[in-house]
Amino acid sequence: MGLIRFLLAYSVLVGHFTFFPTYKLIGSDTAVEAFFILSGFYIAMIWDTQYNSVKDFWINRFLRLYPAYFVIAATNLIINLIDPGDLKNIFTFPPLMSIYLIFTNATMILQDWAMFLGLRDGHFHFVANFQDSSPVIMRYLLIPQAWTLGVEISLYILAPILFFKKFKYIYFVFIASILIRVYLMMHGKYDDPWGYRFFPNELALFMLGAVAYCFYSKIKFDSNPDLYNLLGKWLMTLIIGFIFFFPNISAEYEFKKGLFYLLIASAIPFIFYYSKSNRWDRFLGELSYPMYLVWALRIDVVGPFVRFFNLTSESAIGVVSYGYVILLSILIHLLVERPFEKIRARFRSKKQQAA
C-alpha cells in the first residue's frame, strides 16, 4: 500500500501549497483521516503478529516515530533560537501552558490538545476552536502538523486495551466513537476541530482499519493467490483513481469522503496482500512519514534556488518545491530512519518470525 500512502502524503503537501491547484487530489483533511484508517490496520496487524510484550510494542513505536521528528523539530528549534520568532514568548505564558508546550514539543504526546487550548487576556482556557485564542497556541508547536501524531500516539497508548483478547471489543469501540461524533454534531460541534482532530471522534477511523485487519486475518489467501492478487491490483487501481479524480466527482463533499473511507477500508486486506512483497512500493510508503513532517521545515532552500536560476514560472517553482520536499524525505529516510530499523527489529518477538 506504499503508493497509496505516498499519494495521501502528497495530498497533505499539495493541500498546504498553492502550486498545481488542479492536482489537489483528495485534500489534506481527507488524506489525514485516511491515514488513520491505514494506521488502524497496521497497528492491529503488528500487535497481533509481532509482539507479546506491551513494553516492546511501545519502544518499537517510539523508534518508528521519534527519530525523524527529533531531527526536524530540533532543526526548527535551532532556527528559532538563531532568529527568535513567536517561540521566544513561550515563557511569558501562564506556567501550566509553558510546561505543556515544552512537554508536547519534546514528546509529541497530547499535541492534538493544542487545538483545544487557548489564551484569553493572558489566562489559560479550553476553547471550542483553536483560532479562538490570542495568540493561537498551535503556532508554538515546532512541527504544527504533528498534532496528528498526538492523535496516533493516543492509539498506541490505548492499543493494549483496544486490542485486548483478539480484538473482541473493537466493534464496541467503533460504535461508541460513532455515537460520540453524532452527539457532538447534534450539539453544533461538527466542524474543525471537533469533527477532525478530536481523538474520541477519530477513534472510529482507527477501529475501521482494525476491523479491516480482522477480515484480512480470516481470509485464506493461499486458497487462490492469483485471484486475490488480481483483486488487490484492481482495487488498488480503483483507490488511486478515486484519489486523483476526487475533486471532479459530482457529489456532496462529506458523501465523497465517507464513501472513500468505506472503500479504502474494504480494499485494504486485498491491496496489502497484493503489494506487501513489492520493495519499491514499500519504499514509497516509507517516504510518506518524513514527507508529511518535512514540508514545514523552516529552512528556505527553494527561495535562493529560484532566485539564483531566475525562475518565474509558477509551475517550475512548484516542481522545485515539491522535488525539494521529496528529496529531503528520501535523505531523512535513508540517513535517519533506516539506521533505527535494526534496533527496532530487536524488539519484535519471535511471533513475527513464525508469521
Largest sheet: 2 strands, antiparallel
Helical/strand content category: mainly alpha
Total helical segments: 14
Radius of gyration: 21 Å
Distance between the termini: 19 Å
Give me the side-by-side strand order of the main sheet. 1-2
| Overall strand count | 2
* Average pLDDT level: 88
Give the SSE string. HHHHEEHHHHHHHHHH
* C-alpha geometry: globular
Structure description:
With 355 residues, this protein is mainly α. It has one domain. The chain is 67% helix and 2% strand. The chain contains 14 helices and two strands, in the order ααααββαααααααααα. It has a two-stranded antiparallel sheet with strand order 1-2. A hairpin with a 2-residue loop joins strand 1 (117-120) and strand 2 (123-126). It is globular and about 65 Å long.
Topology:
Elements: H1 2-15, H2 28-49, H3 54-82, H4 95-107, E1 117-120, E2 123-126, H5 147-162, H6 164-167, H7 170-186, H8 199-218, H9 225-245, H10 253-275, H11 279-294, H12 302-308, H13 314-345, H14 350-354
Helix pairs in contact: 1-2, 1-9, 1-11, 2-5, 2-8, 2-10, 3-5, 3-11, 3-13, 7-8, 8-10, 9-10, 11-13
Main features:
mainly alpha; two-stranded antiparallel sheet; 14 helices
Give a short overview.
The chain is built from 14 helices and two strands, in the order H-H-H-H-E-E-H-H-H-H-H-H-H-H-H-H. The chain has about 350 residues and is mainly α.
